[in-house]
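Weekly structure sync - notes
Attendees: PM, LS, DV (DV joined late)
Agenda: review two folding runs queued last week.

Item 1: First target. Sequence and structure tokens pasted below for the record.
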Amino acid sequence: MAGHGYEGGRLDLPFVGISTFGKRPYVGDWSAIGAEVAILGAPFDSGTQFRPGARFGPRGVREASTLFSFGHAGAYDHEDDVTYLPGWVRIVDIGDADIVHTDTIKSHANIETGVRAILDAGALPVVIGGDHSINIPCIEAFEGRGDIHILQIDAHLDFVDERHGVTRGHGNPMRRAAEKPYVTGLTQVGIRNVSSTAKEGYDAAHAMGSDILSVRQARNLGPQAVIDRIPRGARVYVTVDIDGFCPSIAPGTGTPSHGGFLYYEVLEMMQALARRHEVVGIDLVEVAPDYDPTGSTAILAAQLLLNTLGFIFHARGFS
């Protein structure tokens, strides 16, 4: 990659330069994306019901991702004996959707426009939030593009229909997704403890085809068995709320919930998913960097995304 590593005449260490995702090229023209993967920031957090701050998630995750940009092509994993994300997997950062303060509809429309541009380019959309409401326009961008199944990693069910007139907040996205005729089902993993969704929300989720697993249930099954519950042949969209992880390793979020997943539990689910299914899109949400002065939450998010992309493209034959 031009300008990276010794070949370009610069060492270009992680703390040098501009913080695009993984220090990949920035593409400002959404009609000329030309890549296998496009990163889009969605710095919207007006859907939060407790602590704001996820609007800074895209910047925080991008900066953390530079840790994994030491100039050499690919990432060698000695356990798998695979070099993931070799240089011919083109990843670009297309910047952020424009956010209009206090205007959820316009902000969501701008996010949807960005995801549609990525899909039109034939690239895999990876959207960094922002609160979980940004999943709503992400899923809406898939209208007319075939059926999808949603895998959600989260502490909360997010299946509220409406609360005081709010239908597009961060407690609503999975309900809005389940209403789409092209969303054939949801696998909701990590759901635990006292939730933002009342019992009627759980009843509605089950009635609309959701498969709901707590952290303890998922651990008892194991990562492969969790993924095996997704119907074979399904095209899968992945939405990861960082509060699906235990706040002992991911405190930088607005609604932490103890008892969450540890890193390898989710990583192994992502690897199993990539081997078994076509992954058509990813969003990762609710990273609020200011609640974690160590920066480890953002590093966790960046590391999970890069490893997941490695698994996806290795399964597609990019190795």
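Item 2: Second target, run right after the first with the same settings.
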Amino acid sequence: MQIKLSKLGPGLLFAGAAIGVSHLVQSTRAGADFGWGLVWALLLINLFKYPFFQYGPRYAQATGETLLDGYFKLGKGYLWAYFILNFGTMFTIQSAVTVVTAGIATTLFGITTDVVTWSVAITVICGILLLLGKYSWLDKLIKIIMAVLAVSSVLALVFAFFKNEQPISLQQVFPDQTGLLFLIAFLGWMPAPLDISIWHSIWTLEKNKTSPKKASLKESLFDFNVGYLATVILALCFLGLGALVMFGTGLEFSNQGGVFAGQLIQLYTSSLGDAAYGIIGIAAFTTMLSTTLTTLDASPRAMSKTIQLLFNKKDTNFYTHWMLILAIGTGCIFLFLLSEMGQLVQIATVLSFITAPLYAFLNYRLVISNQMPEKDKPKRGLRILSVLGLLFLTGFTVFYLFSL
């Protein structure tokens, strides 16, 4: 059965949300600090997280409900736990992606070098776009952004390979001491925090509302697989760029948003040449802008749905309220806690990792429960991978906690 491009959407939104800080920042830094030595971690975490992300669109398409509805049916306490965890991290996550976007903007546009001014402006513009265009604008914009990003990133990596004169070592490493904390943060947001599966289930239902015909489960899973494969390939591209251009040079990435943005764009232009500076800069900017847009859209949708379920307010939409709360909270971090951004991001990424087993367990429990039609439940191979993934995520979390 032919699957039309118009059926794609939620999977690309997932990719747009995922290919942000975890790729542009952490994957590039992994390559710069460890060369190709963390490819094992990148591939393993993408493999073991795969089923739990896939269960978002699978559950939504099969039942017509979001994962949050499923959590509520499993027990109100699970939904309260999600509400508390999400409320505790959503401001930091939004601030992190917006600051990186703002840093790239200061490098590209030169209107002002003040990251706070750019951050506030970007938040306001994104908020207006979402309130005016809602899901349909987001759905169309992300397809263009992903195409530009994919072409520029793969080209950059190919050129970097041809220009590289140093021997390439594929020896894998396991970081220790401070490197272990980076590894946990890297795994926590690679390809994205597991709670994005909740966002994906919400976007899947939104796509059905805006489409003339509801997508089939096969089409929905194809859409997801396209987006997921894109996140893996591009993560390898960014890690490779860091390894080929910066590893062994003694250069280190700055923690300052504007400086980091300049270094990041330089990675591309050193491979493609100075003539490509504008194209690459726009690609990097639109990538982070897409992440800023998708996170600013998804968190309010998820929190609105959570409030509706917890307080039996199903007829009231709190999307706009939560967007304002998120925008104001993010603005406060820009104004008062920007100097602590590094620590806040570290806390958010580590929390994403140590809570991953909970989300993985809940998603798996839902798709094998009686709430799922028998024909739509995962097959044996995916179930085995799910159990292995649960063991990996739980084991690594326990290992990290005992290493503190």
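Discussion on item 2: The chain is about 75% helix and 0% strand.
Action: LS to circulate a short write-up before next sync.
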